[in-house]
What we know:
This protein is mainly β and about 325 residues long. Helix content is about 5%, strand content about 50%.
Amino acid sequence: CMESGGMMNMGNHTPHFIAVDEINRYWFVSNIASGYIGRYDLDTDEFIDNIHVGDSPALMVLNENSMKLYVSRMMPMSGMMTGSVSTLVQEIDYANSDELVKNQEYVIDSPAPHGLAINLDGSEIYTVSNTADWLYKISTSTNVIEAVSLDASVGNPASMETQRLKPIQCVSIDDDLLLVSCSAGVWYNSSTGDSEHIPGQVQLWNTTSMTMLDSIQFSSYSTPWHIVSSTIESRFYVILAGDNLYSGSAGVVCVSHKNNNLELIWKNESEEFYKSTLHGIDLSADESVVYVSGRGDDYLHVFDSNSGTKIRSIYLGAHAMSAG
Protein backbone atom coordinates (compact mmCIF):
# COMPACT_ATOMS: atom_id res chain seq x y z
CA CYS A 1 0.00 0.00 0.00
CA MET A 2 2.98 2.34 0.34
CA GLU A 3 3.87 2.14 -3.36
CA SER A 4 2.79 4.96 -5.67
CA GLY A 5 4.53 5.32 -9.01
CA GLY A 6 7.47 3.35 -7.65
CA MET A 7 8.27 5.97 -5.02
CA MET A 8 7.33 3.99 -1.91
CA ASN A 9 8.73 0.50 -1.33
CA MET A 10 7.29 -1.72 1.40
CA GLY A 11 10.61 -3.32 2.27
CA ASN A 12 12.38 -0.01 2.69
CA HIS A 13 9.63 1.69 4.66
CA THR A 14 8.16 -0.99 6.98
CA PRO A 15 4.59 0.27 7.58
CA HIS A 16 3.91 0.13 11.30
CA PHE A 17 0.69 1.84 12.42
CA ILE A 18 -2.49 3.33 10.94
CA ALA A 19 -4.67 6.25 12.10
CA VAL A 20 -8.05 6.98 10.49
CA ASP A 21 -9.86 10.33 10.19
CA GLU A 22 -13.45 9.40 9.39
CA ILE A 23 -14.66 13.02 9.30
CA ASN A 24 -12.17 14.43 6.80
CA ARG A 25 -11.83 11.05 5.00
CA TYR A 26 -8.12 10.35 5.31
CA TRP A 27 -6.01 7.53 6.65
CA PHE A 28 -2.35 7.74 7.64
CA VAL A 29 0.42 5.16 7.99
CA SER A 30 3.71 5.47 9.86
CA ASN A 31 6.78 3.87 8.29
CA ILE A 32 9.16 2.98 11.06
CA ALA A 33 12.18 2.13 8.89
CA SER A 34 12.19 5.13 6.52
CA GLY A 35 10.75 7.84 8.78
CA TYR A 36 7.86 8.73 6.44
CA ILE A 37 4.20 9.39 7.23
CA GLY A 38 1.91 8.61 4.29
CA ARG A 39 -1.58 10.04 3.71
CA TYR A 40 -4.33 8.26 1.73
CA ASP A 41 -7.90 8.94 0.67
CA LEU A 42 -10.19 6.94 2.96
CA ASP A 43 -12.80 6.33 0.25
CA THR A 44 -10.55 5.39 -2.68
CA ASP A 45 -7.31 4.37 -0.88
CA GLU A 46 -5.51 6.65 -3.34
CA PHE A 47 -2.08 7.82 -2.20
CA ILE A 48 -2.12 11.60 -1.63
CA ASP A 49 1.24 12.62 -0.19
CA ASN A 50 3.86 11.86 2.43
CA ILE A 51 6.20 13.72 4.73
CA HIS A 52 9.53 12.71 6.24
CA VAL A 53 9.75 13.09 10.02
CA GLY A 54 12.69 10.77 10.78
CA ASP A 55 13.51 8.91 13.99
CA SER A 56 11.32 5.84 13.55
CA PRO A 57 7.74 7.12 13.71
CA ALA A 58 5.74 4.63 15.74
CA LEU A 59 2.17 5.23 16.96
CA MET A 60 -0.20 8.02 15.89
CA VAL A 61 -3.30 9.82 17.17
CA LEU A 62 -5.22 12.64 15.50
CA ASN A 63 -7.55 15.54 16.21
CA GLU A 64 -10.17 15.47 13.47
CA ASN A 65 -11.47 18.97 14.28
CA SER A 66 -8.15 20.81 14.11
CA MET A 67 -6.75 18.37 11.53
CA LYS A 68 -3.59 17.73 13.52
CA LEU A 69 -1.75 14.40 13.55
CA TYR A 70 0.59 13.47 16.43
CA VAL A 71 3.34 10.89 16.00
CA SER A 72 5.60 9.28 18.58
CA ARG A 73 9.16 9.10 17.27
CA MET A 74 10.71 6.23 19.11
CA MET A 75 14.22 5.43 17.93
CA PRO A 76 17.01 7.17 16.01
CA MET A 77 17.17 6.08 12.38
CA SER A 78 20.84 7.04 12.19
CA GLY A 79 21.57 4.18 14.60
CA MET A 80 19.69 1.71 12.37
CA MET A 81 17.07 1.43 15.11
CA THR A 82 19.49 -0.10 17.62
CA GLY A 83 19.30 2.78 20.10
CA SER A 84 16.44 4.63 21.71
CA VAL A 85 17.54 8.22 22.24
CA SER A 86 14.72 10.01 20.43
CA THR A 87 12.63 12.11 22.84
CA LEU A 88 10.17 13.63 20.36
CA VAL A 89 6.46 13.70 19.64
CA GLN A 90 5.81 15.25 16.23
CA GLU A 91 2.80 17.41 15.36
CA ILE A 92 1.71 17.41 11.69
CA ASP A 93 -0.90 19.73 10.14
CA TYR A 94 -2.97 18.03 7.42
CA ALA A 95 -5.54 20.80 6.78
CA ASN A 96 -4.01 21.41 3.36
CA SER A 97 -5.47 18.76 1.06
CA ASP A 98 -2.31 18.69 -1.05
CA GLU A 99 0.49 18.86 1.48
CA LEU A 100 1.35 17.63 4.96
CA VAL A 101 3.12 20.24 7.07
CA LYS A 102 5.36 19.59 10.07
CA ASN A 103 4.47 21.86 12.96
CA GLN A 104 6.24 21.71 16.25
CA GLU A 105 8.07 18.95 18.04
CA TYR A 106 7.26 18.25 21.67
CA VAL A 107 10.42 17.27 23.53
CA ILE A 108 10.04 15.08 26.60
CA ASP A 109 12.71 14.26 29.18
CA SER A 110 12.67 10.50 28.53
CA PRO A 111 13.88 8.45 25.55
CA ALA A 112 11.78 6.22 23.30
CA PRO A 113 8.26 7.68 23.42
CA HIS A 114 6.04 4.93 22.01
CA GLY A 115 2.53 4.72 23.46
CA LEU A 116 0.44 7.73 22.40
CA ALA A 117 -3.10 8.89 23.22
CA ILE A 118 -5.28 11.98 22.89
CA ASN A 119 -8.22 13.10 25.04
CA LEU A 120 -11.72 13.67 23.70
CA ASP A 121 -11.41 17.36 22.81
CA GLY A 122 -7.80 17.17 21.64
CA SER A 123 -6.52 19.53 24.32
CA GLU A 124 -4.07 16.98 25.73
CA ILE A 125 -1.92 14.21 24.33
CA TYR A 126 -0.19 11.55 26.40
CA THR A 127 2.89 9.49 25.75
CA VAL A 128 4.89 6.88 27.66
CA SER A 129 8.59 6.13 27.44
CA ASN A 130 9.09 2.48 26.54
CA THR A 131 12.52 2.36 28.20
CA ALA A 132 12.34 4.83 31.11
CA ASP A 133 8.81 4.03 32.42
CA TRP A 134 7.62 7.65 32.59
CA LEU A 135 4.22 9.07 31.59
CA TYR A 136 3.84 12.51 29.97
CA LYS A 137 0.86 14.85 29.54
CA ILE A 138 1.25 17.55 26.87
CA SER A 139 -1.13 20.50 26.54
CA THR A 140 -1.65 21.21 22.84
CA SER A 141 -2.70 24.80 23.55
CA THR A 142 -0.08 25.92 26.09
CA ASN A 143 2.69 23.39 25.25
CA VAL A 144 3.09 22.73 28.99
CA ILE A 145 4.39 19.23 29.68
CA GLU A 146 3.80 17.32 32.94
CA ALA A 147 5.53 14.05 33.80
CA VAL A 148 5.33 11.28 36.38
CA SER A 149 7.01 7.90 36.88
CA LEU A 150 4.88 4.82 36.24
CA ASP A 151 6.42 3.28 39.36
CA ALA A 152 7.57 5.84 41.94
CA SER A 153 9.05 3.07 44.12
CA VAL A 154 11.88 2.60 41.62
CA GLY A 155 12.87 6.26 41.76
CA ASN A 156 14.69 6.43 38.44
CA PRO A 157 15.21 9.86 36.85
CA ALA A 158 13.14 10.50 33.72
CA SER A 159 16.22 10.19 31.50
CA MET A 160 17.37 6.83 32.92
CA GLU A 161 16.45 3.75 30.88
CA THR A 162 15.38 1.11 33.39
CA GLN A 163 13.78 -1.28 30.86
CA ARG A 164 11.57 -2.49 33.71
CA LEU A 165 7.85 -2.02 33.02
CA LYS A 166 8.33 -1.44 29.27
CA PRO A 167 5.02 0.38 28.56
CA ILE A 168 3.65 -0.28 25.08
CA GLN A 169 0.38 1.57 24.53
CA CYS A 170 -1.74 4.17 26.28
CA VAL A 171 -5.44 4.72 25.55
CA SER A 172 -7.60 7.64 26.68
CA ILE A 173 -10.98 6.28 27.79
CA ASP A 174 -12.46 9.47 29.24
CA ASP A 175 -11.53 13.11 29.72
CA ASP A 176 -9.43 12.21 32.75
CA LEU A 177 -8.82 8.45 32.50
CA LEU A 178 -5.93 6.75 30.74
CA LEU A 179 -4.97 3.08 30.34
CA VAL A 180 -1.31 2.06 30.01
CA SER A 181 -0.24 -1.46 29.01
CA CYS A 182 3.15 -2.59 30.36
CA SER A 183 4.81 -5.64 28.81
CA ALA A 184 7.31 -6.03 31.69
CA GLY A 185 8.89 -9.49 32.07
CA VAL A 186 12.38 -10.38 33.25
CA TRP A 187 14.19 -7.28 34.53
CA TYR A 188 17.90 -7.05 35.29
CA ASN A 189 18.56 -4.80 38.29
CA SER A 190 21.92 -3.19 37.50
CA SER A 191 22.32 -1.90 41.06
CA THR A 192 22.12 -5.39 42.61
CA GLY A 193 23.10 -7.60 39.68
CA ASP A 194 19.96 -9.68 40.18
CA SER A 195 17.19 -10.50 37.76
CA GLU A 196 13.55 -10.08 38.78
CA HIS A 197 10.32 -11.26 37.17
CA ILE A 198 8.01 -8.25 36.77
CA PRO A 199 4.34 -9.10 36.09
CA GLY A 200 2.83 -7.78 32.88
CA GLN A 201 0.16 -5.26 33.78
CA VAL A 202 -2.31 -2.59 32.76
CA GLN A 203 -2.46 0.61 34.79
CA LEU A 204 -5.37 3.06 35.11
CA TRP A 205 -4.40 6.73 35.54
CA ASN A 206 -6.22 9.94 36.39
CA THR A 207 -4.73 12.45 33.95
CA THR A 208 -5.98 15.51 35.85
CA SER A 209 -4.03 14.65 39.00
CA MET A 210 -1.50 12.43 37.17
CA THR A 211 -1.98 9.69 39.75
CA MET A 212 -2.44 5.96 39.27
CA LEU A 213 -5.89 4.78 40.36
CA ASP A 214 -5.50 1.03 39.98
CA SER A 215 -3.61 -1.71 38.12
CA ILE A 216 -4.26 -5.29 37.12
CA GLN A 217 -1.40 -7.78 36.88
CA PHE A 218 -0.84 -10.88 34.80
CA SER A 219 2.06 -13.33 34.73
CA SER A 220 5.64 -12.22 34.16
CA TYR A 221 5.53 -13.98 30.77
CA SER A 222 2.20 -12.53 29.63
CA THR A 223 3.57 -9.46 27.75
CA PRO A 224 0.47 -7.21 27.58
CA TRP A 225 0.49 -5.30 24.29
CA HIS A 226 -2.24 -3.41 22.43
CA ILE A 227 -5.55 -2.29 23.97
CA VAL A 228 -8.99 -1.47 22.58
CA SER A 229 -11.63 0.18 24.75
CA SER A 230 -15.39 -0.23 24.55
CA THR A 231 -17.47 2.88 23.83
CA ILE A 232 -20.60 1.19 25.15
CA GLU A 233 -19.53 -0.33 28.47
CA SER A 234 -16.87 0.36 31.09
CA ARG A 235 -14.53 -2.32 29.81
CA PHE A 236 -11.49 -2.83 27.63
CA TYR A 237 -9.71 -5.69 25.89
CA VAL A 238 -5.97 -6.28 25.88
CA ILE A 239 -3.65 -8.65 24.05
CA LEU A 240 -1.32 -10.89 26.01
CA ALA A 241 1.41 -11.54 23.45
CA GLY A 242 2.96 -14.11 25.77
CA ASP A 243 6.33 -15.84 25.60
CA ASN A 244 7.05 -18.49 22.96
CA LEU A 245 8.79 -20.62 25.57
CA TYR A 246 5.83 -20.74 27.97
CA SER A 247 2.64 -22.46 26.90
CA GLY A 248 -0.52 -20.73 28.16
CA SER A 249 1.14 -17.33 28.54
CA ALA A 250 -0.63 -15.75 25.52
CA GLY A 251 -4.23 -14.82 24.93
CA VAL A 252 -6.87 -12.11 25.21
CA VAL A 253 -8.42 -10.62 28.34
CA CYS A 254 -11.44 -8.42 29.03
CA VAL A 255 -11.21 -6.04 31.99
CA SER A 256 -13.80 -3.79 33.64
CA HIS A 257 -12.83 -0.27 34.73
CA LYS A 258 -16.18 0.51 36.36
CA ASN A 259 -15.87 2.93 39.30
CA ASN A 260 -12.16 3.30 38.45
CA ASN A 261 -11.44 -0.25 39.63
CA LEU A 262 -9.84 -2.80 37.32
CA GLU A 263 -11.44 -6.24 37.51
CA LEU A 264 -11.04 -9.22 35.20
CA ILE A 265 -14.23 -10.14 33.30
CA TRP A 266 -12.83 -13.00 31.23
CA LYS A 267 -9.53 -14.40 30.03
CA ASN A 268 -8.79 -16.72 27.11
CA GLU A 269 -5.26 -18.05 27.39
CA SER A 270 -5.61 -21.11 25.19
CA GLU A 271 -2.38 -23.00 24.56
CA GLU A 272 -2.92 -22.60 20.81
CA PHE A 273 -1.85 -18.94 21.08
CA TYR A 274 1.52 -19.19 22.79
CA LYS A 275 3.44 -19.21 19.50
CA SER A 276 1.02 -16.91 17.66
CA THR A 277 2.59 -13.66 18.92
CA LEU A 278 -0.82 -12.02 19.26
CA HIS A 279 -0.46 -8.34 18.49
CA GLY A 280 -3.23 -6.13 17.06
CA ILE A 281 -6.76 -5.89 18.49
CA ASP A 282 -10.02 -4.20 17.54
CA LEU A 283 -13.79 -4.37 18.05
CA SER A 284 -16.58 -4.78 15.53
CA ALA A 285 -18.91 -1.81 15.03
CA ASP A 286 -21.52 -3.28 17.38
CA GLU A 287 -18.78 -4.46 19.77
CA SER A 288 -20.06 -8.02 19.76
CA VAL A 289 -16.82 -9.37 18.31
CA VAL A 290 -13.13 -8.91 19.14
CA TYR A 291 -10.62 -9.22 16.31
CA VAL A 292 -7.04 -10.21 17.11
CA SER A 293 -4.11 -10.51 14.70
CA GLY A 294 -1.45 -13.17 15.12
CA ARG A 295 1.88 -11.75 14.03
CA GLY A 296 3.51 -15.16 14.40
CA ASP A 297 0.87 -17.40 12.82
CA ASP A 298 -0.65 -15.17 10.09
CA TYR A 299 -4.18 -15.65 11.41
CA LEU A 300 -6.97 -13.25 12.28
CA HIS A 301 -8.61 -14.68 15.41
CA VAL A 302 -12.25 -13.80 16.12
CA PHE A 303 -13.67 -13.85 19.67
CA ASP A 304 -17.06 -13.32 21.28
CA SER A 305 -16.66 -10.08 23.25
CA ASN A 306 -18.97 -11.14 26.09
CA SER A 307 -17.61 -14.61 26.79
CA GLY A 308 -14.11 -14.64 25.30
CA THR A 309 -14.93 -17.79 23.34
CA LYS A 310 -13.04 -18.07 20.07
CA ILE A 311 -15.46 -18.09 17.16
CA ARG A 312 -13.01 -18.87 14.38
CA SER A 313 -9.55 -18.17 12.96
CA ILE A 314 -9.02 -16.84 9.44
CA TYR A 315 -5.72 -17.51 7.69
CA LEU A 316 -4.22 -14.37 6.13
CA GLY A 317 -0.85 -15.74 5.05
CA ALA A 318 0.67 -16.34 1.63
CA HIS A 319 -1.58 -19.29 0.80
CA ALA A 320 -4.74 -17.33 1.57
CA MET A 321 -3.55 -14.38 -0.52
CA SER A 322 -2.61 -16.52 -3.51
CA ALA A 323 -5.96 -18.27 -3.34
CA GLY A 324 -7.76 -14.90 -3.45
